[in-house]
Each structure stands twice: as structure tokens, then as C-alpha cells.
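Input sequence (113 aa), recorded before submission:
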Amino acid sequence: MTTRWKRFYRKQMEDTKLRELVESELENLQLGVQIAKLRAAENLSQTKLAAKAEMSAPKISAMENKSDNLTIGTLIRVAHALNSRVEIKLVRRKGTKAGRPRRRRVKSQKPQP
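Predicted structure, C-alpha cell format:
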């Protein structure tokens, strides 16, 4: 059964700019959600995690709620405080094709007079 909300959402996602914005925000939230889940699994409050990672509780809150502009170093500090490690991988976006690699142009050298 298709609900009004699902129809509305599908219609909105036809707008490429809006879809890119939504996908970008979802990507940002995924990392914050992972941090919050690991923190909960370790039975830590944001304040306790902040103390273990030697940073402020508002910084942990910001990471969980909007995790853009994080440095890898900060992420590693939080991961270590959560008895975890950081893994980074690049994943192709849905609906995109693999392009052929760009060829480097070689500048022709003009003879020196």
C-alpha cells in the first residue's frame, strides 16, 4: 500500500538538487549514528566518551548530530575511546556508471632556439 507520504517523497526525489541534498545529509548522519550506537553499546554518556577521547561533550554531540567537517585524527581519537577502529572505503553512488579513466595530456615540448 502506497501512503501519501511515500508518494510525496517519490515526487520530491525527482528533483535532482533536492535528492543530492537529502543523500548528502543521510551520508553525514550515518557516521554520527554509528558513533552514538557504539557509545550506547559501551554504556557511555557523551560526557564520559568526551573525557575518554580528551575532548568536550558538545564536540561529541556535534559529531553525533551533524558529523561533517571531521578530521580523521578526531575520528580516530573517538574510535579508540570506543574500543573501535576506523575503516575508510569509497563506495560508488547509486545510479552512477564507472567512467573510463582520464588520460593525462602530455604537453608538447617546443624546441629551444
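Checked by second reader. The helical segments are 4-12, 16-41, 46-53, 57-65, 72-81.
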